[in-house]
Amino acid sequence: MAAPHMNFPAAVQRQALARQRNLCASCGTRISAPGEAGIASHAYGERAEAHHVIPHKKGGPVTLENCVILCRSCHYSVHQGGSWRDASIYDDLDLLPMRVRIAKIAALYPHYDG
């Protein structure tokens, strides 16, 4: 049985957004603050959401390295659409150390490091 889902603490979300230079890790749209706080200044009026680079149910920790901040539509896409629909991107990671797993998937986000 998978562990219950764990949300990222607010401080980790703010640190991740700063690491990304206040850009959505996926599309690069400017995000002023995580959650509802940034809606008014978001180009498309979207909230920003924290996302686990390695899913929590696959052992992904609730750490800064495993956190990316995404626009709501990008977060939806990660879980529902595009190439992210195919979860096979995680298949070859199980035997790797967690830091390597995170780095491999984080590299798919163009604005992970800003």
UniProtKB/TrEMBL annotation:
The keyword Kinase does not apply. The keyword DNA-binding does not apply. It comes from the Bacteria. Keywords: Endonuclease, Hydrolase, Nuclease. InterPro entries: HNH, HNH_nuc. Pfam families: HNH. One of its GO terms (molecular function) is endonuclease activity. Residues 11-76 form the HNH nuclease domain. This is HNH endonuclease.
